[in-house]
Amino acid sequence: MSTIPDHAYGLYLEFVGKRNVSIADLRVYVKVPVGVGGHSDIGGEMKKKLKEISEYHSIVSLLESIFPGVESGKPEPKPPPHAQEEYASPNPPAPDRSGEELPPVDLGDSELSDHIKVVAKFKEES
């Protein structure tokens, strides 16, 4: 199990994403400068993108050095301590009996017979 804090992994993903978006923008400036629209100073825009890429790359590298393995994937989520106890069942799951026909139940003399009223009968399948 990974020991990388969730926040460190989240920040890593955020800055990798921002870096990748900035790289994609820079590629557009280089390949299709007319696609930049109202920006007449392509060189200035490229310089801004390079500074962004450098900043994001620096943060990504720093996170990788402080939290070795952060780039390998998201740490496994840890359920709250009480959730394991609450949802853990000592009994195995019951077998699937959805295709079996259930026997009729006679509530005639039970305590439930006074509280249950049949309001409809299901149609039998042909």
Task: Give the gist of this structure.
The protein is mainly α. It is built from 3 helices and no strands. It is 46% helix and 0% strand.
Q: Top keywords for this entry?
A:
mainly alpha; 126 residues; elongated; 0% strand; 3 helices
Could you please describe the fold and organization of this structure?
The protein is mainly alpha-helical and 126 residues long. It has a domain of 62 residues. It contains three helices and no strands. α1 packs antiparallel against α2. The radius of gyration is 31 Å and the shape is elongated.
| Rounded radius of gyration (Å) | 31 Å
Global outline = elongated
How far the N terminus sits from the C terminus, by CA atoms, comes to 54 Å
Compute the number of helices: 3
| Structural category | mainly alpha
What's the order of the H and E elements?
A: HHH
| Low-pLDDT regions | none
Helix-residue proportion:
40-55%
The average pLDDT value, as a whole number, equals 76
Instruction: Report the β-strand fraction as a percent range.
Output: under 5%
Major sheet summary line: none
Strands, total number: 0
